[in-house]
């Protein structure tokens, strides 16, 4: 039997076994109905996002994030800031201004609407510009499912998100905005 297939099968079985275990052991950054503030270490950006929905716990989600250092050629971030707050119970699109990359997330839960407000922590890298941008498909694919994004290719970065809120199901679906960044200083700002 092909060794690569054995490794893949073992990995899939381990994933299924882990999913059937208690989801509380995933290193979540929040508890249900709690706010959170997550920031990557300096010089790193978000590369993976995972969430788990529970109707019984306020129609809320547990969240976890992973970071990765940016490529050396991108340099150090010259400025970081919290972008605009995106209100609970609304549909919105948010992209880091000034060509920033997402390096953190904070959120506050609102019991009155069973939803959260969101804010991205953005970092600006010199005068690099985004290109080859795309939106992911809906994450999760269906409301109330577990959601997971892993940036598919090294060299792509999360710049923002578009989200749709279902007032009936009290949950959100996300489309993350992924872009590459130029290897050279560009003349444009605020793309």
TrEMBL record:
Official protein name in the record: Dermatopontin
Record has Signal as a keyword: yes
Origin: domain of life: Eukaryota
One GO location term (cellular component): extracellular matrix
InterPro entries membership: Dermatopontin
GO biological process: collagen fibril organization
Lineage of producing organism: Eukaryota, Metazoa, Chordata, Craniata, Vertebrata
Signal peptide interval: 1-18
Keywords: Disulfide bond, Secreted, Signal
Claim: Secreted is one of the keywords in the record: yes
Record-stated family: Belongs to the dermatopontin family.
Cellular localization per UniProt: Secreted
């Amino acid at each position: 039997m092909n060794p690569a297939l054995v490794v893949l099968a073992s990995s899939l079985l381990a994933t299924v076994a882990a999913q059937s275990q208690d989801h509380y052991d995933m290193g979540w950054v929040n508890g249900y109905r709690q706010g959170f503030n997550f920031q990557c270490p300096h010089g790193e950006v978000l590369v993976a996002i995972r969430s788990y929905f529970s109707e019984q716990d306020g129609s809320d989600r547990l969240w976890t994030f992973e970071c990765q250092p940016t490529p050396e050629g991108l340099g150090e971030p010259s400025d970081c800031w919290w972008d605009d707050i995106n209100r609970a119970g609304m549909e919105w699109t948010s992209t880091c201004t000034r060509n920033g990359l997402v390096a953190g997330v904070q959120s506050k839960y609102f019991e009155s609407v069973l939803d959260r407000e969101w804010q991205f922590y953005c970092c600006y890298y010199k005068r690099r510009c985004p290109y080859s941008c795309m939106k992911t498909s809906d994450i999760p694919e269906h409301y109330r499912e577990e959601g997971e994004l892993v940036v598919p290719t090294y060299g792509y970065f999360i710049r923002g998100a578009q989200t749709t809120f279902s007032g009936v199901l009290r949950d959100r679906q996300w489309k993350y905005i992924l872009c590459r960044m130029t290897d050279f200083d560009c003349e444009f700002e605020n793309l």
